[in-house]
Automatic annotation (TrEMBL):
The organism's taxonomic lineage, starting at the top: Bacteria, Pseudomonadati, Pseudomonadota, Alphaproteobacteria, Hyphomicrobiales
One Pfam family it belongs to: PEP_hydrolase
Family annotation (InterPro entries): Aldolase_TIM, Pyrv/PenolPyrv_kinase-like_dom, TIM-br_IGPS-like
Alphabetical keyword list: Hydrolase
Domain TIM-barrel residues, every copy: 44-140
UniProt superkingdom: Bacteria
Annotated source species: Alsobacter ponti
GO terms, molecular function: hydrolase activity
Listed name of the protein: Phosphoenolpyruvate hydrolase family protein
Amino acid sequence: MSDWAGRAAPIFDHIPEATEPPPDGPVLVCPWMAGLTLPSGPWLAVLPIHDANAWIDDDAWPGPPAAFAERLYFGIYAQDRLRAADRMLARLAAKGVRGLVNLPTVSFFDGSAAANHRALDFTPQRELEFLLRGRDAGFRAGFCTRAPEALTEAERAELDFLLVPERTGGPLLLARASGDR
């Protein structure tokens, strides 16, 4: 497998066709991106403009293609206050989803917006806790963060990759979570 670290993450609003596999490395599937464009879509999606996790409750959902299912990570809003975490994880597992990434993420906010989110307990740490809970339930996990240096080695060891913005509003770059992966 080629070294995928440092390149922009491939982000799809649908499950890619098995006949056209995406490049090596993690592949992000973000159904809530429908109608949004790259690179601004992931940045806009964190705003309260839609229900980013509505697709989880959609009964008509195709399973991931076996050819590269192990590389698919589905973007979820990890701080969904409208859905119980265990129910979300059960629905995702029933759909054949095995990889999760916290996208959209509150880590995109800074300044007073970030302070307001922290006051409501909407933090990147809470997103990480959800992903680690998913990991305990058998999911793979990638973590989107503007502050990869804030992660402990133990937290990094639980993650398959990091997703780090190149700059505000710019592409999301893939990074190795630890030297072991």
